[in-house]
Amino acid sequence: MMQLRAAAIACAVAVMTAAASAQMGSGLRGATPLNTEGSAPPIAPPVDSAGRAVRNYPEQPPLIPHSIEGFQIHLNGNTCLSCHRRTQTGQSGAPMVSVTHFTDRDGQVLATLAPRRYFCTECHVPQYDAKPPVKNDFVDIDTMLSRSKSGDRQ
Questions:
Q1: Fold of 47-53+60-129
Q2: Residue 69 and residue 75: Cα distance in Å, rounded?
Q3: 3-state DSSP call for residue 20?
Q4: Whole-angstrom distance, CA of residue 118 vs CA of residue 75
Q5: pLDDT tens digits along 72-96
Q6: Residue 63: which of 107, 121, 23, 119 has the closest Cα?
Q7: Segments making up each domain of the chain, as ranges
Q8: Whole-angstrom Cα distance, residue 107 to residue 60?
């Protein structure tokens, strides 16, 4: 009985090891073993676009349509505001910081940017021409609604 149990455990371990080995090539690590530090993939080039990207869901922060390399956002300065501050948008042509960014967490409207909205890249990210590392089957709400009207349930 004990030998049968040991054989079953050994068989299960072998099957799990084979399954894990088969998945190694398709995961985020590629063929890099777990006990080895792999090299980072190259950074994709930024996408500079004049237009605004379509948002995938309501309340999604807008994407940054230009490179922000060299921009600094710290306690004493924010490079983003050199173009997006209300008083600069006429010269820069950039959209003004949203009015929602002038409200504190208690709902009080402020004369200046709310401290919790000062560090832009906590929510807004630049666009990159990058292949997604994993398959993504996200479907936006408009597509879901049009599918439900047409009876397509995919």
A1: Flavocytochrome C3; Chain A, domain 2 (1.10.1130)
A2: 18
A3: helix
A4: 9
A5: 999 999 999 999 999 999 999 999 9
A6: 121
A7: 47-53+60-129
A8: 20
Residues of the chain with pLDDT under 70: 1-8, 10-26, 152-154
**C-alpha–C-alpha distance, residues 72 and 32, integer Å:** 35
Beta strands in the chain (DSSP E): 73-74, 77-78
Q: Biggest alpha carbon distance in the chain? A: 83
Strands 73-74 and 77-78 turn out to be antiparallel
pTM above 0.85, yes or no: no
Residue 125 to residue 144: CA distance in whole angstroms: 26
| Cα–chain center distance at 119 | 16
